[in-house]
Task: inverse folding
């Protein structure tokens, strides 16, 4: 079985790497192949997601929800339907907005096991869809 | 009753081995034999006498309470001014200006494409200050001659601009530089370990510029602490308590050696200039208290033993602390008031000159006004209601405290030796040695939360789905980018263009010829050069450093 590929990127220009490092390590330990993109723009995230044919996009949110929504819009405009999860300092109102767009949110204090479990669910579903 | 020697943890009936969060084994109780021979004399010396283990001043807080020094800033410069005035009106006894992270950390103006593509993030944590004029707006109604200030510039490459902007505003208001009281930061942990921007000058260039700042302040701003290494940022990036101590002093040693090599500042003055540092207080109560005590003695011993300094003023470490932002939980944030108070209490007991308590809404946003006021009130309650200021170093002589202080110090020296074996501070930074240590610790700390070794109320124990005290965080000003664009356009149109162009050229010459960069930036910002233009010169002349970790 080929490992599911996760693209990890930061939405803002804030380079705190502690969160993304810990989550990326947990995903790797959980059997995922992790592609680290760093602080990149919406267009770059969409390009890498397409080029690398990723199964999941993980966004580290360090800024406003509008910037995350721009990334979602850019993915949609490029026909990318890859599921998205988001972690970081995401206040409640932003969680609500992102969940409306099917983004699973993991604010501070989320358990790593829960993140990995959700990543598995989302990527397993993908595999099922491809087989149909 | 006999006591096991240090390092022999005693298991409880359940077989659990207890230790500090940094992994120092803990016994059930401590006795006289646990205090190492070498620490007894220092522990017996009263506060205010060498080696200052027990405190920098003989009168403790009786001579001077700690400074209430809270970080603030968001949105537009006017928002920043309003918040600073608010904090001062509530009893803040100094202020720390936070510049917008996107523009400041990267040295970009708001029209840089990387900023434009994420424009809503502008101003989310820090005010947009691109010019001396913007800084003037951020200081509206604030008397620079009266208050102790941190002008911003936690990030090394941003420090010259942040201070130049603040100082130029003071000059424009008719003050003299030698009247100004405050501190710089320019620390090596914020962006060289903790949160790198897209572009930053290499650590060696930052060291050079920091030494320029030290020289400039020595000449022009005798009351200003030129730079201040922030162990806080090392610790919140993952270094443990004794690694934080070692990293701060290794960094200061790099600065001492460089300025000493230049021979431009007398070594006593240099030591004093570098002797204001910050540490992080987190939730391991006694470990962090002992860290502050160990820090004072280490700084004294390093200066005395390595540099032969005997001037008592220079040998006293001055400590600012910030309570750990990472300790503040997103779940049931009102409980963070307790966490802030506990961390603040440990700082008071450890002995500090200055303190910032992180806000209860820290895990959600920059502080709301209410949360910011609460941080100040927590400090005031500790100051006025508890009688804590009466007695200096109240824990001195405790077998446990003296033993743990000595243990932290011993481990800190061992880590300092590792840094020196790795080629010294700058080499250990450039090679990624420090990042590797931080990364391992980050994972270990997270694993300890996952497996329950570290318990956090509301996060992995006593969790609940419903929070009766709903707190949604502070949303700040959404128009900071647009208003920044308007100000930038007006600024460029209104300034003397030839003069600004000449100032940029002149700054570039200074950077290329190894002149004093602080003096160069001071002059350029006085001629209305912007933060983005300073950044272009720095990127052009020093290049960009490749961060040694992928993320």
Result:
């Amino acid at each position: 079985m080929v490992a599911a590929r996760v693209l990890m990127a930061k939405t803002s220009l804030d380079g705190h790497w502690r969160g993304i490092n810990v989550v990326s390590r947990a995903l790797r330990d959980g059997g995922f192949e992790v592609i680290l993109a760093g602080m990149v723009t919406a267009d770059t995230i969409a390009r890498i997601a397409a080029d690398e044919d990723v199964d999941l996009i993980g966004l580290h949110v360090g800024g406003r929800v509008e910037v995350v929504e721009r990334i979602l819009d850019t993915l949609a405009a490029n026909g990318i339907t890859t599921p998205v999860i988001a972690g970081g300092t995401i206040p409640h109102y932003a969680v609500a907005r992102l969940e409306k767009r099917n983004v699973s949110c993991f604010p501070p204090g989320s358990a790593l096991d829960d993140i990995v479990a959700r990543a598995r669910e989302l990527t397993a579903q993908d595999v099922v869809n491809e087989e149909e | 009753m006999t006591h096991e020697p240090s390092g022999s943890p005693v298991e409880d009936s359940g077989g659990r081995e207890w230790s500090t969060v940094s992994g120092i084994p803990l016994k059930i109780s401590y006795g006289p034999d646990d205090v190492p021979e070498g620490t007894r004399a220092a522990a017996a010396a009263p506060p205010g006498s060498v080696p200052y283990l027990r405190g920098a001043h003989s009168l403790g807080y009786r001579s001077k309470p700690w400074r209430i020094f809270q970080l603030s800033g968001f949105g537009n410069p006017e928002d920043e001014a309003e918040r600073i005035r608010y904090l001062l009106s509530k009893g803040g006894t100094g202020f720390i200006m936070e510049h917008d992270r996107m523009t400041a950390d990267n040295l970009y103006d708001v029209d840089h494409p990387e900023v434009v593509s994420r424009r809503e993030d502008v101003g989310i944590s820090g005010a947009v200050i691109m010019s001396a004029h913007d800084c003037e707006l951020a200081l509206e109604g604030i008397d620079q001659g009266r208050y102790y200030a941190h002008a911003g510039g936690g990030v090394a490459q941003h420090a010259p601009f942040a201070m130049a902007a603040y100082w130029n505003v003071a000059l424009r208001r008719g003050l003299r530089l030698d009247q100004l009281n405050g501190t710089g930061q320019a620390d090596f942990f914020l962006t060289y370990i903790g949160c790198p921007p897209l572009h930053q000058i290499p650590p060696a260039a930052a060291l050079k510029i920091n030494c320029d700042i030290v020289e400039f302040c020595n000449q022009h701003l005798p009351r200003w602490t030129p730079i201040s290494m922030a162990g806080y940022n090392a610790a919140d990036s993952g270094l443990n308590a004794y690694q934080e101590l070692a990293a701060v002093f290794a960094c200061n040693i790099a600065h001492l050696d460089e300025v000493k090599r230049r021979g431009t500042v007398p070594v006593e003055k240099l030591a004093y200039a570098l002797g204001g540092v910050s540490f992080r207080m987190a939730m391991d109560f006694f470990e962090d208290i002992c860290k502050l005590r160990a820090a004072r003695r280490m700084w004294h011993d390093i200066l005395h033993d390595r540099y032969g300094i005997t001037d008592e003023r220079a040998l006293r470490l001055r400590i600012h602390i910030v309570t750990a932002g990472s300790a503040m939980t997103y779940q049931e944030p009102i409980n963070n008031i307790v966490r802030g108070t506990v961390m603040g209490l440990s700082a008071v007991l450890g002995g500090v000159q200055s303190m910032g308590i992180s806000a209860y809404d820290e895990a959600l946003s920059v502080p709301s006004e209410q949360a910011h006021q609460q941080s100040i009130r927590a400090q005031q309650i500790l100051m006025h209601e508890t009688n804590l200021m009466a007695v200096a170093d109240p824990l001195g002589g405790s077998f446990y405290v003296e033993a743990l202080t000595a243990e932290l110090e011993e481990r800190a020296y061992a880590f300092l030796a590792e840094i020196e074996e790795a080629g010294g501070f700058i080499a250990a930074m450039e090679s990624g040695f420090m990042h590797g240590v931080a990364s391992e610790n980050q994972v270990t700390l997270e694993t300890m939360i996952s497996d329950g070794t570290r318990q956090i109320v509301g996060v992995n124990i006593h969790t609940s789905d419903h929070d009766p005290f709903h707190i949604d965080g502070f949303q700040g000003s959404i128009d900071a980018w647009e208003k920044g664009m308007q100000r930038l356009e007006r600024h460029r149109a209104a300034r003397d263009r030839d003069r600004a162009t000449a100032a940029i050229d002149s700054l570039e010459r200074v950077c290329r010829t190894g002149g004093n960069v602080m003096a160069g930036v001071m002059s350029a910002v006085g001629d209305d050069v912007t933060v983005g233009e300073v950044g272009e010169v720095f990127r052009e002349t020093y290049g960009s450093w490749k961060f040694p970790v992928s993320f």
